[in-house]
Amino acid sequence: METLRLQVVGEAFKKKPLDVKAPADRPAKYFGSKVFNREKMYKYLPKDVYEKMIDVMDKGVRLDREVANKVAEGMKQWAMENGVTHYTHWFQPLTEGTAEKHDSFIEHDGKGGMVEDFSGKLLVQQEPDASSFPSGGIRSTFEARGYSAWDPTSPVFIIEDTLCIPTVFISYSGEALDYKAPLLRALHAVNVAATDVCRYFDPQVTKVTSNLGWEQEYFLVDEGLYAARPDLLLTGRTLMGHDSAKNQQMDDHYFGSIPERVAAFMRELEIVALELGIPCKTRHNEVAPNQFELAPIFEETNLAVDHNMLLMSVMKRVARKHGFRVLLHEKPFAGINGSGKHNNWSLSTDTGVLLHAPGKTPEQNLRFAVFIVETLMGVFRHNGLLKASIMSATNAHRLGANEAPPAIISSFLGKQLSELLDHIEKADKEDLLSMQGKQGLKMDIAEIPELLIDNTDRNRTSPFAFTGNRFEFRAVGSEANCASAMIALNSAVAEALVKFKKRVDARIAETSKKFEGTGHSATFHAIIDILREDIKTCKPIRFDGNGYSDEWVEEAARRGLDVEKSCPVIFERYLDQESIDMFESLNVMTKKELEARNEVKWETYTKKIQIEARVLGDLSMNHIIPVATRYQSQLLKNVEDISNIFPAEKAQKLSVRNVKLIEEIAERTSNIERMVEELVDARKRANKIESEHEKAISYHDTVEPKLDDIRYQIDKLELIVDDGLWPLPKYRELLFIR
Ligand code: ADP
Ligand code: MG
Known about the structure:
CATH architecture of the largest domain: 2-Layer Sandwich
CATH class of the largest domain: Alpha Beta
Distance between the termini: 25 Å
Strand content: 5-15%
Radius of gyration: 29 Å
Helix content: 40-55%
Number of helices: 25
CATH topology of the largest domain: Creatine Kinase, Chain A, domain 2
CATH superfamily of the largest domain: Glutamine synthetase/guanido kinase, catalytic domain
Low-confidence stretches: 434-442, 446-454
Bound molecules: adenosine-5'-diphosphate, magnesium ion
């Protein structure tokens, strides 16, 4: 009889691609068809209501009840025309993914029948029974209420029969229980701080927007094979599995042609995503076999975050239709590349991207230098925190491995930008800046080469690289909510800009006396002075070398950068005084919120490792050891048969190999048994620890290392046990979709 594995492998390899029905229209036509965007607002809302909504969205004007009711009315009409029967507040709790609770539109009409109703009240606020969402103790279960409130800056959309309303999720005492609330506060902070600094250069600037373009990497596996791997099913990654003889060493997958079955999936995914207003742009194979990427055009950060959350859930749904499972885990397979989610980040005003060189005027170039340097200042000051913002039990497998950004945050600027900063730092100030009567400023930094924007000199090992008109935060994990990184980054930059402004203003006050009547611009003198100080200060964060090398770890430690590797220890950076001061001064998060969120982080970490340990323990005892033992019995029988037929000396000779295998199996299975016992003991000891913080550290230090030890033994067994008996789909089967 064939094992389950061989049956599912057989089935998987027979599967044909689904026919994806071509949409009736061109993408530009159906883009956003499932979104209540401005175009639909214009159509479905009375003119005065539409105008109020535009103010709410663009200027942050408060939404009053009257307007909300009218918006809800228009929304309901549009939704019902699209076959919608339910609505939900869609939010991003501190677990992974999104949460939703669907209610239908129906209400009693008071005459024994039903009407479909949807009021402004329901649109604006809901009270999900929130006791089961993690809150880190902010909301103890007896006062379980939290409420979700509409974020009108992210448009409402339709998934199948449900109207989804993006919301923040907040406790009754006002603390954020989600990612969106602090993100909106961080984006507000960076807008205010950056606008202030922009006004030195252009007093007309009224708003600075933070942009995010994410690149989502993912793996696909056949659904049947996935179902036959309890480790994938329960933990999102393979806890065992020997390398496939061929994996990524030929580099033949990257940008290669996309397998038919996968292409069909991608086509459908893109149609669905475009309908939801996600501006998908790029799709390609990634480095590892079965690894792919999807990237949209960048958007305002809050919207981009929502779109990424939405895409991850849509992906899972569409994949199942095509007989696939999407693996968003950062490291589903050992020995081959893991998945990240590069976060391309920039700031822009209504007039253009701020991190874009060269400008047309010296002022623009100076502004460019200021925003680059103050970004670096933020990243330098909070490099440990930024690492904490992307760290998780799952991403920890990827960081520091020789494929992904190292577990040290540094920034690659490229040759030209580095030279520019060096020049500003060292040049004679009078050369840099001299006043020529009424013609304004002359600055010796006008020569920023055109090439910069087309910078192909890319350092793939840098976790935070400048790539022409943006920084690319590459350390973000594929499974993560980008909001976490974006909260930390935008806050860090906002704080740097606030501090910069304060110091520049103080310097202007000093220098303006000196230059009184000379026609000198005290402002630009002050800016250059402070900029030069900051270029010196943040120098340790600049690193253009190989981030994978061991020397870098030593060098980074010498520079005072955070080189910690342990995930639960890295989370401590959220509670450093500098972090608390930063978040509190910008009104992004309070100390209480930070403490609560860290409790959730530590608890989540522990649970993940706990589940992995249990799954590996179970699989070892009820899959691997029994199968290895069965094979060992067959070998023993063979040895016995041989000894019955041949004379002793000859029999011994003929059985040398099998006897060796029998011994190896005996040794490895007993090792596994012993290690599983140790694993259980380590878990028991850790579980007794009261503090979530200490417990997570104990799981990291004592439980997690054992997983690798056990795996090593199992992978060796996989190599010797009869392939026909082996119960779990192997890497070579999981990783090559036909
Ligand atoms: P890569 O070569 O790194 O794969 P792409 O050119 O595919 O990068 O772009 C990656 C992402 O960066 C896309 O989402 C793109 O829209 C985004 N992007 C481009 N310019 C900016 C910018 N100024 N700010 C933020 N994101 C940007
Ligand atoms: Mg990129």
